[in-house]
Design brief:
The structure holds 2 protein chains of 2 kinds. By secondary structure, chain A is mainly β. Chain A has no helices and 11 strands. In chain A, the strands form 2 sheets. In chain A, strands 2, 4, 5, 6, 9, 10 and 11 form a 7-stranded mixed beta sheet that branches. In chain A, strands 1-3-8-7 form a 4-stranded antiparallel beta sheet, with no helix packed on it. In chain B, strands 1, 3, 4, 7, 8 and 9 form a 6-stranded mixed beta sheet that branches. Classes of the chains: A mainly beta, B mainly beta. At the A-B interface, β5 and β10 of A face β3, β7 and β8 of B.
């Protein structure tokens, strides 16, 4: 069974930093693109970042470019999101998501999410 | 940037058919997928590659995609189908629609 378990969320002041982690199990982690998707309170889903299987390609939504860094450790079956210079508008539940095996750039599996609150 | 537009809300009576649309420029030329999200839960994939159902998703969920519109259809809608539904496609980046709240009256 595929499992994605996020951790690392919490309350942080504007301008602060936070590192999210996602522990993956139940599949060959190194074979899949992985992503972070966020959802602000009461709002819709927003893709944040993608990373290729070997970490050689990374993509970000414009609003986080230069502030967030996605990375992975295939030996540890783990995905990360380093978030710097946090803003109030970054407040959201952050989901770790695994792409599906077929063509089409869809997310077949999601974690339970971790809440990040940026507030003074 | 690419945009996907969904109606904010759709209502349906139990047992009837619900249709939720997702509009985007030449969306039919791309793959569309759909997620269901119930309050306090993570999204669940219900349709991928326009019309395919993942394992475990009931047959009453179906999808189509042509021209500028993708449609999620729920036949014989049940109370348990009440949720938010999001379409998603890819156009040089992952794009989500704004979501549609499905109410089963």
């Amino acid at each position: 069974e595929v499992q994605l378990v996020e951790s690392g969320g919490g309350l942080v002041q504007p301008g602060g930093s936070l590192r999210l982690s996602c522990a993956a199990s139940g599949f060959t982690f190194s074979s899949y693109w992985m992503s972070w998707v966020r959802q602000a309170p009461g709002k819709g889903l927003e893709w944040v970042a993608n990373i290729k299987q070997d970490g050689s390609e990374k993509y970000y939504v414009d609003s986080v470019k230069g502030r967030f860094t996605i990375s992975r450790d295939n030996a540890k079956n783990s995905l990360y999101l380093q978030m710097n210079s946090l803003r109030a508008e970054d407040t959201a539940v952050y989901y770790c998501a695994r792409r599906g095996a077929a063509a089409g750039n869809y997310f077949q599996h999601w974690g339970q999410g971790t809440l990040v609150t940026v507030s003074s | 940037s690419y945009e996907l537009t969904q109606p904010p809300s759709v209502s349906v009576s139990p047992g009837q058919t619900a249709s939720i649309t997702c509009s985007g420029d030449k969306l039919g030329d791309k793959y569309a997928c759909w997620y269901q999200q119930k309050p306090g839960q993570s999204p669940v994939l219900v349709i991928y590659q326009d019309s395919k159902r993942p394992s475990g998703i009931p047959e009453r969920f179906s999808g189509s995609n042509s021209g500028n519109t993708a449609t999620l259809t729920i036949s014989g809608t049940q109370a348990m189908d009440e949720a938010d539904y999001y379409c998603q496609a890819w156009d040089r980046a992952v794009v989500f629609g704004g979501g549609t709240k499905l109410t089963v009256l």
